[in-house]
Amino acid sequence: MIDIRFLRENPDIVKENIKKKFQDHKLGYVDEVIDLDLKKRKTQQEADEIRANRNKLSKQIGALMSQGKKDEAQEVKALVSENADRLKELEEAEKKLDEEILSRMMSIPNIIDPSVPIGKDDSANVEIEKFGEPKVPDFEVPYHTQIMESFDGIDLESAGKVAGNGFYYLMGDIARLHSAVISYARDFMIDRGFTYCIPPFMIRSNVVTGVMSFEEMDAMMYKIEGEDLYLIGTSEHSMIGKFIDTINDEKNLPYTLTSYSPCFRKEKGAHGIEERGVYRIHQFEKQEMIVVCKPEDSMKWYDKLWQNTVDLFRSLDIPVRTLECCSGDLADLKTKSCDVEAWSPRQQKYFEVGSCSNLSDAQARRLKIRIKGEDGKKYFAHTLNNTVVAPPRMLIAFLENNLNADGSVSIPEVLRPYMGGKDKLERK
Questions:
Q1: Distance separating alpha carbons of residues 295 and 239, to the nearest angstrom
Q2: Using an 8 Å Cβ cutoff, are 224 and 202 in contact?
């Protein structure tokens, strides 16, 4: 959510930003907010004048009573009562105006960074850099579920009976590999100075609306029936929520945290043939990283965050590339974002395995995450997040890139301590 003062003073910039996001249906919100804000300030001014006048009249009543002028005191009391009724009307009007302003402000997208390429959807995303040499082996690479099945490592049929489509049982060495990747990612981030955290896996609605747009909320979140609780779609949600309504000393920043959690997502919409198996599912586990920092440091941390993911994948012999998200592919709260994509030897193309985002002060403004400077002044923090690793998609990339002609899978040296010293997985 942007600063209403910025909108008030720069309506044309806000409208141009909406156009760059290809959300022209929201253009009217800008003028509506300006009009509602003007009405609110007038209402507030009148209410403040009544409150100030009420204090004066109260003193007059006391003075008149002490002088024995009861009739005159009663007349002033009647005026105070009349003003009280008007004040109640104004306070109710102010509350309603606040709600109308907030509903529109929550839908107006954050101002994107000038470096973001302009485009309507992900087809306009721009490749930034490749890391590692993508290779295509001289043998056929099976579909990822077939590779897992060759190790007796996955059971989709039973999961379908138990929970429906979009779920799976991981078994044996594949399940162990899944846990090994999570454990390695945890230690990788701890070694880079991040504090490890296991957060709540459910959050309240005020946190949900603080960390994402209404559109994302509807497309992703599962609500707990009868409770003001939602299952998290990523631990970023509860990790950023950890700082709700806080004032943080500037000298203690940045906060750099890495968190483990299961994730739950509706994953609405049609899915292509390559998104079967464990690519797009309703439940998975993930290691995440988040940063809460001063505004002037957020772009520096943005570059550090995506580089962490690149380095982790390269340590596992997986070629990756970074892709700059265009304006139309950015969620409303994001000011800049890039995807990390892993190479798929089977498809002979890259696919998304993580996303790094700078949300500037959008989440902090919604959740009231503030910083207190050395001069005592308070200002909103900047928040960032990035995927360290999400094993379902990571497993696809890992298995395809480390598959051997005989069907075995090589274990990179850094992962062997988490796999009981094994250097290779052998087919059953």
A1: 19
A2: yes
- Cα atoms in the 13 Å half-sphere on the side-chain side of 88: 5
pTM for the full predicted model: 0.89
User: Taking a C-beta distance cutoff of 8 angstroms, is the pair 402, 259 a contact?
Assistant: no
Mean pLDDT of 35-50: 92
User: What angle, 0 to 180 degrees and rounded to 10, lies between the N-to-C axes of helices 391-401 and 172-191?
Assistant: 110
Residue of 78 and 208 predicted with greater confidence: 208
Cα angle: 300, vertex 236, 27; to 5 degrees: 80
Percentage of the chain lying above the pLDDT 70 cut: 91
